[in-house]
Every structure is written in structure tokens, then in C-alpha cells.
Specification:
homodimer, Rossmann fold, 2 domains, five-stranded mixed sheet, five-stranded parallel sheet, 16 helices, about 10% strand
Chain lengths: ~450, ~450
Amino acid sequence: MSVKVNEKYLEGFVSQEEIKKIAPIAKEAFSLVKNHNGAGSSMLGWLTLPEDYNRDEFYRIKKAAEKIRKTCDVFLVIGIGGSYLGARAAIEFLKSPIYNSIRGNDPEVYFVGNSISPSSISDILKVCDGKDICINAISKSGTTTEPAVAFRIFREYLEKKYGEEKARERIYVTTDRAKGKLKEFSTKKGYETFVVPDDIGGRYSVLSAVGLLPIAVAGCDIDELLRGALDAKNEYSDFSMDNACVKYAALRNILYGSGKSIEILASYEPALQMLSEWWKQLFGESEGKDKKSLFPASVMFSTDLHSLGQYIQDGTRNIFETVIDIKKSKDNVTVPYDQFDVDGLNFLSGNDFNDINHKAMLATLIAHNDGGVPNIVLELEDRSEYSLGYLFYFFELSCAISGYILGVNPFNQPGVEAYKKNMFALLGKPGYEEHKKELETRIK
Amino acid sequence: MSVKVNEKYLEGFVSQEEIKKIAPIAKEAFSLVKNHNGAGSSMLGWLTLPEDYNRDEFYRIKKAAEKIRKTCDVFLVIGIGGSYLGARAAIEFLKSPIYNSIRGNDPEVYFVGNSISPSSISDILKVCDGKDICINAISKSGTTTEPAVAFRIFREYLEKKYGEEKARERIYVTTDRAKGKLKEFSTKKGYETFVVPDDIGGRYSVLSAVGLLPIAVAGCDIDELLRGALDAKNEYSDFSMDNACVKYAALRNILYGSGKSIEILASYEPALQMLSEWWKQLFGESEGKDKKSLFPASVMFSTDLHSLGQYIQDGTRNIFETVIDIKKSKDNVTVPYDQFDVDGLNFLSGNDFNDINHKAMLATLIAHNDGGVPNIVLELEDRSEYSLGYLFYFFELSCAISGYILGVNPFNQPGVEAYKKNMFALLGKPGYEEHKKELETRIK
């Protein structure tokens, strides 16, 4: 029922000697996490979250989700980065990448405020037309440009549509526990609020209110999600080179050390597309610093076997793959018999798609191994809430360990400030006058 | 109105000397394309397609699209790789990434048969429930597993729903002009067919019937698309280092030669997400061979500035970016004034999102330059059909030139066969008995 690391397709690529050599480094990294004495250790709240989360808030999240499900057709989640990737990944994983088209009686869920594209805003306004809306604005500070301007637009939209009094019942804010103008404003307005914990960064926040409210609104079982995470926490709590989190962290660092520069997360279910995006943020932002780290990329097979597959098989040999192998499919579909056998595939008639998909995976693992590409396989039982909670925790802990093995602070993101500072200057934010002048000379 | 290559953000990364040095190689590569004497030159049909396409077929495509738009609620496009990426990229670029949610009176369009996931099939069957359906099966050979099994399922579905006679009116097949069992079968059944040209590979086929029928069904103007491509063909027909296609091809090869291993295609409109996937297939499959080539990746800004942005700013310095800069947005949205100024962004009140988005781009270009990342900027007027046709042609020609500069055949994909062969063996296809035994020993 847990996440297993299958090393079979690393044979010939990773030696026992390399594993032995990294073991003490991995042990030290694990200890930095567990003992809260590594860089960024004030941001380790996610480590024990599955057992010490706030029960009262959890109850309020479920109540709010119930109410939202009853009172709206469209639920808008306003957030960027870690404030939306986790929830979107979860809903697509648990339900479908086309959830909004097949949702039945569940509300439509859209994610806005994660870009500055006017078309994105405009498209969502079209979706909202004539429908009942609730919104969840998610921002620790309340001042991040993308979600902040989207919140202005949709708050105004709701207040025009329902009046200020009734709009208040439809606006939920997930923000700092006590500080900040968004919290202050929400209190004044009377919005129900939830907490972005102080000790959990955006990319580690999916199992907090940040992710849980939208996930619950889509009709997913958040108790099961946390139960999976808790079992993961318990399974992975002690150091050993057989601890799956340690193993994954160690293997990817060994491959990085032996010259690989790109890790490609591969899966065979389109429902995992956004989970791959969540994973890319988790690892890219945690490790991509100090001029080092693996570049995290993703592919969806078998479709991308007819795209990046060529590169993976035959291009520059600087890659390895991490494959998520989901054992049981949510759906059963079999290949029909065709009396004309137009495609010559009657030998597949009656075969289950899940079985064919699994054989496509084995076929690809062997082909890519033969092409010189190491493959780590992560085995997961199914697409249930329990399994997803397990997987989220598995990746979070693996990432923290991996970052410490690499020698970086896995909990900061200093590089995100550079564009923000330039953007404020170019936009004429008060206080940035000097920097503005300098930049305007450069872009001339 | 055309595609312009802006080199400003390459200053300090690419020297005039390097450009001089690559010029004769680029000239030779260009000549191989134009004179049809490079590797794979039998697959150059796309080069003159915008002027010598079959007018009768083009007329039939428009007629068929009109009929489909009148007779169905849901249009299913069955194809994998080049048989779906172009059309999907075009519809999202021209309409919206959430086209199906805001399509008005246009039919819903879904792409199936590009994976072996049973859930994908099952989800689409749910979408179809109670609605009128038309399908377009796209496959040169008719024997590619993923679309073939999906075609079995949806053909059977239509025949059950409408009867064989009436189903025939709802099935459109895009396949080989004359050869193959799918063509033969379609003729026998009386399906209307369109042609996958003999001299155009999947990833170069978007402006043939492969892409045009689905694009037209979504209500896009395919005359304008071809007009843009024709103008591009004329603009880029002669060699010069100022020819934008030559320039882009040369610059990316210079960066590759100077040690960059990843090219990240960046854009600021979520509508370009699938265009990036199309681009990844085009370049990844054309160049990813003989153990070389840039790895093509993509990001969507500003959302991914809060994800891979950290890596791009501060991680391993083995990357460069190619940014698509769309000058005019499709939509106008301005930032509302907020009397509470909760987010401190009142200095933006009344500002146009497109202007803010553009400043975010400039801010990021400078920040990434400062972080040591070269940026190629591709400027495009707008998200019109004309501009998209231009851009498709620009990338196709650039890719062919780039592949020849790199020294590979940009028109084959030998690496795609490896997984297919293994898959057929594991699935027990007659004739693969020996290979099956061998593989089964390996996976034990």
C-alpha cells in the first residue's frame, strides 16, 4: 500500500559501491531533517503535519467544503506556485484531468491568479457568466502580484453580483494566521479564513488548508489523504538505506554525481500531468540553487513516446527517468474484437487496457535501458486519496533529504525575488525609482 | 506581422565571431533543405505545402467541418504524436486552453487515442453520454496501437448508438492517400477520407488535413492559417544570416556548442502550453538522436517563475531560454482600484494586464540574464490564425535547418521503434515469439 522504489532498471548504472559511498552522507542528511538542525529548519512543519494538524480547522475545512459544494456552480481558487499546484494535482489525480467536463454534481473548479495573462482572467469571467460562484484566495502575504490582482477582480465581481453582504458568504481566504493586511482585511470583512502555516513553505503545503479546501470541494476524501500521509510518516521515520525516501534521494544524487543533468518524471496516466508539475516545483525550487542540481522535466507516456521518446531513446545521454507505476487503474476498458481486423490488432481483443498500458511501461523501461537511460521505478497501489497522501509525503521527505545530500537549503527560494524586484521597478512601484531608471536604460 | 528574432538578451553570451564561424555551416544546412539533398529529403513536403496544397481537399475539409459543426456536440480526434499535437496546440492558441468550457455554440473537441490509459477512454465515454458525436481518426498506417484501439472503441460506440448506416456519416478518416488497410476499410465503409501526405512526417503535418480538419471544426479560420504560412514561406525563402529561421537555428546551435544542454521555451500566455508541447515534439524528435542535441523543455510564466523559476535563476548553468513574446493580447482587462489597498498594489490601478504581463517579461529577461541565462526572444504580433500559421512555418523551417547544422536527419525517428517492438513482443503479437521469451527473462 506504500510507495516502493524498484531498482531493477538501474542495473549497470548504479553500483553497490556508489550506494555504500553515499550512505553516510544520506544518513547525515536524514538526521538534519529529523533533528531540525539543517539549513532552513524553521520550515519543517510539513514533517509532522499528518499527525499534529489542527483538528478544529480541519473540521471547519470540511464544513466549508460542504457549504461551497451546495451553494456554487463554480469554485475559483486564486493562488500561484505552491498555492495552487498541489490542489490541482490532487483533483486531476483523484478525479480526472478533464474533471470539469465530467464532474456530475460536483462544482466546476478553476485555478486563477497564477499568471498575468488577461485572457486567463477573461476566460474565467466567461465561465462564471450566469453561474453561482465561490472563491478561495490563497496567499501567505496577500501581496503577491498575480493572485492579488485576480482577487481584486473576482471580489469586485462577486460584490457586484451578490452585494457586499452576500458576497462575504462566498469568499474564503487562506492566509497567515495573524499577520498581514489580507488577514486583517478578511477579519474586518468577515470572511472565513484558514491558515497558511508559518513553518511550511508553499511547495510543501498541499496537506495544509492550502490544498485541503479545494480538494475537499471537488468531492475528494481528505481524511483518507491525511491517513495515507500519516502512514507514510510512520513508515519513513527511521533512517536506513532501505527507507524508500532515503533510497530515492540517494539514487538521484548518485546519478547526478555520475554526470546526469536531467531527471524526467514519467507516468502512463494523463491524470498525473499536474502531479508532475507539482513535483517539478518541489524539486526544482528546493534544489535548483547555488549553480547546481538536476533539471526536473516530465513526460506523459505513451503519448510522449511519440514526441520526446526519440530524444530519450537516442539523444544526449545526460538523462535518467523516474517512472511512477500505478498498479491498479481506476477504470476497466477492454479492446473490442473487430471482424475486419483493420489494424491487425485482433491478438489484443479482450485484453484489458491497464494490462496493455503496464506492458507498454515494461517495454519502454527495457528499451530505454538498452538506450543507456537509467530508470528508477516508484510503485504506487492506485489513484486513491490514501495512496496520493502517501505519495505527497514520500516526495516531500525525499526532497528534503535529497537537498541536504546535495548541500543546499531545500526550504528557501532566493532566486524568485530577482524577477519580482525588477517587475516592481518597471511597474513604477513607489520606492523603486532608482532601480527603475537603471532597468529602463538596459531595456532600451 | 512576421516572426522576429530579438537578440538583445544574448548580449555577452553569443559573440559575432561565433556567428561568423557558424554562417557557412548554416548556409550549407539551408541549401540542403532548399535543394532537397540532405538526409531524409523525401520528407520535405511541408516546405511548399502553403502554396501547393490540394485545393479540392481543402474545400472538402471546410465542407466537412461545417457539417460536423452542425451535427455534433462532441468531436473526437483520435491520433497520437504529430496526429494530435498540432491541432490541439492551434485550438488552445487561437481559442483558449479551456476552449471546451467557453466554446459557446462550437462543438466540444477532445483528443483521444494518444495513450493506453483506460481512464482516458472511460472519461471520454462519460463526456459523450447523451450527446451527438463525430469522430476523426488520424493515422498514416492505421496500425499504431494507441489510436487503433481507441478507434475500435469509438467506432463500435457510434455504430451501437446510430446504427452502421448513420454512423458512417459521423466518421472521418485521415490516412494514407491510397495504401494501407485503414484506407481500404474506409473506402469499403464509405467514410469520407482525407490525406496524410507521403512526404510530410507527423510532426510537420499540422498544416495538412491532419491539423486542418480539427482546427476548422473548432471554428478557426484555416484560410488565414495558410495565408500566414505562405507569407512565412515567402519571407524565409532565401538564405541570409538575417533570415529569422536561419538566425534562430544558428543561435541555438551556437549555445549548444558552448555547453548549454537544455533549451526552455517560455511564454506568458497559458494558451501557448500545447504549442510548447508541439514544439517539444518537433525539436525533440527531429534532433534527439545520434547521442546528441539540446533537451527541449518548456515553462509557462509567470506561474512557473514560482516553480522552475528558482532553478532557472540560480541552478545548474546549462540552460538557455527561448521566449515567445506576443505583442497584442486577445483580451483587455485592467486592475481595479481598491479603497482598502489590501495588497499595496493601488499603484497598478487602471493598468492593463497585457502591459503588466509584458513588463513581467522584461523583468524576467533581465533577471535571468543577470543569473547567467541567455535568452532568445521570438516576437509575434498576436494570437490570430495568420500569426500562428506564420509561427508554425517558422519553427518547421528553423528545425530542419537546425537539424542539418547539428548533423542529424531531422525527418526520421528511429528511436520510436524500440519500445513498439518490445511492446508487441510482450503483448504476444504473432511473429514476436523469440523476442518475447528474451524480454520475459529480463523483466523477471
